[in-house]
Specification:
Blueprint: E1 9-13, H1 18-29, E2 33-37, H2 41-49, E3 55-57, H3 68-78, E4 83-86, H4 101-129, E5 132-137, H5 150-169, E6 175-182, H6 206-209, H7 214-226, E7 231-234, H8 237-247, H9 249-261
Parallel strand pairs: 1-2, 1-4, 2-3, 4-5, 5-6, 6-7
Helix pairs in contact: 1-7, 3-4, 4-5, 8-9
Amino acid sequence: MMGYFSDKVVWITGASSGLGAELARQLSREGARLILTGRNAAALETVRQQCETPCQLLPADLEKDATAELAAAALTAFNQVDILINNAGITQRALAEDTLPEVERRLMEINFFAPVMLTRQLLPHFRERKSGQVVVVSSMAGLMGFPLRTTYAASKHALKGYFETLQVEHTIPGFYITIVSPGRVNTPISLNAVTASGAAHNQMDEGQANGIPVADCAARILKAMRRKERHVIIARSERVLWWLRKNISPLYYTIARKAGMKQS
């Protein structure tokens, strides 16, 4: 029996490792054709070899390459795009007052402006086809603040605000947006987190190492996509912190500060 993703063309950014690579593998097993974007072409090739369905590579650095030309190249790969998964992102481990302005701009370019630009370029295509889906991988940091992640949190708050508003205002038939807010997932993302100067953090955080298995997170995202959920939270302890933020905010501020500043 044909599944939801069978023969759909899915464009995944940040597909060279972590959650993006796992989404590619799981979508391939469900029959999707894939377009994989990331900075590391060799790593993308490794992911392609792990996939079972046709897979086109579209290497790009989304800090500077999130352009109309990149979207056009994606559309050319299979002559259509059914689903865009905006997964590429970079996190942060630095105090606000120490972080250089150029580092803050880099975080915003990759985490916010890139997914906005790529989505906008595909909207006419979705309107013409009267169908389409965009998935936006945000973060629990897009719902509440957490120490050492000021600009990262700002970028994810902006991401949720933009795409939640787009959910409300668009008039495209058969078009759906799913916003994903994961907590800590066991991926290498903290290794590549930027410090105040922009250098790599080069440390695997304990919370990250003990986070949700990446395969479980990817499977939950696919479930949300099938169900066309508008917003899905995938989290453990962060879900408790989020509840405290809404209901007992003084306790949230105390716990978040204490837990977050341990990493400084």
